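User: Last request for today: this protein with pyridoxal-5'-phosphate, please.
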Amino acid sequence: MTPDSSRPTQPDRIARLEELAGDLWWSWHLEARAVFRRLDYALWRATAHNPLRMLRLIAREKLDAAAADPAFLEIYDRAIAALDAARGAHNTWWANTVPQLRGQTIAYFSAEFALHQSLPIYAGGLGVLAGDHCKEASDLGVPLVGVGFMYPQGYFHQHISADGWQEESYERLSWEDAPIERALTPEGQPCITAVPIGDRSVLVEVWRVRLGRVTLYLLDTNLDENAPWDRELSARLYGGDRETRIQQEIILGIGGVRALKALGIEPGVFHLNEGHAGFVVLQRIRDLIEDGSSFDDALAEIRKTTMFTTHTPVPAGHDAFAFSLVEKHLAGAWGTLGEHRDRFLQLGAYDNGSGMQFNMTALAIRSAGSTNAVSELHGEVTRAMFAPMWPDVPEAERPVSFVTNGVHVPTWIAPDVGDLFTKYLGAGWIDRHDDPSMWDGVLAIPDEELWTVRQGLRRYLFAFIRERARQRWVEERVGIPRVVAAGTLLDPDVLTLGFARRFTGYKRPELVFHDPDRLARILNAAGRPVQIIFAGKSHPADDVGKHHLQRVYKRALDPQFGGRIAFVDDYDLHVAHFLVQGCDVWLNNPRKPLEASGTSGMKAAINGVPHLSIGDGWWAEGFTGANGWVIDGHAPADNPDAVDAADADALYRLLEEDVVPAFYDRDRANVPHRWMATVKEAIRTVSPRFSARRMVKEYAQRMYSPALERNIKSEV
Ligand SMILES: *Cc1c(COP(=O)(O)O)cnc(C)c1O
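Assistant: Here's the final one, the structure of the complex with pyridoxal-5'-phosphate:
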């Protein structure tokens, strides 16, 4: 595969436009986004904010005009200067905090990274978390390199049929429009490494993504030299069967370690984001044994320098393979580790109720020096769920800590909200955004001003939804009911709830329809109506999830709800931005305690969209009593039907008695002051604590730097 550079060259004066577009740093810096917006606003929108694609399609006259426009040049120069400053900075938080760790590197492995819609190598929450982690590491100067997959067909696009069934289609990535380039070895050669799978060798090419100070390396098996089936191994994210999955994980773990070596990178710490990357430890133990270590010494060494983050309290979410499958595909990978094969396989042995299997989470827990969950509650659940791992250890002492997830504030904050912060918190707010005391300044924002911004964001959302509906109508000639279901009848002045996430059973997407008549009364109340926007994909193999989705879609088609329920298809980062910024309330009602953390509610809250949620995941820590609402029907957990009924009743009551009145109680200028108090509390309390800045600093201080310090000492 070759990304060909068919973009026309730019006029000399703005010759670094392509460089700016080629570093995703642009995507979270307003001064850089302004460059592309201003260059050709229609094209910016038409390409879903993909500047590389813009530069390929833009008319030469526009570039020439820009190069001669002093106002444009001022913006351009400012953005280029900021990019250079970011790349060259020596006084980052990391450099100032741990100057003795100069030159050290942390490798962060993840099967998906959600960085921008122009690089569709993510499915959902896990990818968003990894992407936000890398961006924040870049901002803080944490010397991180990411390792993941270049999926040429990415994750699927979702179409909803007339009767609400999810249809999946895969599009080949248009390489020339994606922010990737070939990774080069220290000798300047393309980086290609061989990975043993079964009795053959699969070649893996490495691509590079620039994220300011952080680099992400992506592995790709689509090389001419590989057999056709091996070329397909990295084609799709979570696309194949168990055989494909284990081979992908071998490539990520073993291939990732080999690729870093070929690139001349020697990480001092390996951070495994979820168990998918567990085979990293196989290659590392093997390397140490080759250098003369015993198995036990090698394992001890690996433990000092490996950290593992686990992400799901749903047992089926933990990858496990039959031993025969593992033996088959690892056959060529053992090398000198071969004589300790049984000891290695023991590291993954775990019975999660369906017999003894090779479990990637067990492997990671047993070979990492630290394991953490992604919220406090998820920590408790993990200690209980993996109890057999530590037969003699009391629950509270089991070695699983937690680092609660956070979101990358510059990525998720709406520019209009950011402008208000600049005005009331000061121009440097973004540099201090994990300081809780700074956020008290939010209380000084006049209600009218914040309300005007909130109204504006709701309007942007509806303009976006309406354009999508128009496209379906014009291009696909869908029938009128589907145009309604796409959100055409939504009213830009009405209280709007958002529900967007993967459609799967434990997230209970249909809970709000538990009593359809009561819901219809709430939605259609004269003078105080409510509307709900749904979005989200179901995993292609999850038929239960697809049936949930279908039934929700049918509600959107049902006139009983007055066109006040919409389903926005093909949820991705782009759609997510509009939804978390433009709704009024973010709804989340998983079956407790199955939501490890959740992050979309954090994205919403920092934009002044309060959370209406079960007290699960991050919300168990985040709810203060004044910054949103907790849905709790107080039914005993052992009876799921009773829990659903009680939770639905609690949800309706919150809407009827609290949420709706607060939103519609207005003063003479039509400002809802009671509502704004909740909005401000959401922003004030959630932004610092649930930021990726707080999260990455925690990882850095509690895990990365202590491990790196030990390395340095043991080398002396
Ligand atoms: C944030 C986000 C998610 C994760 O949302 P949860 O609330 O954690 O389920 C999934 N998909 C996209 C596109 C997102 O932006």
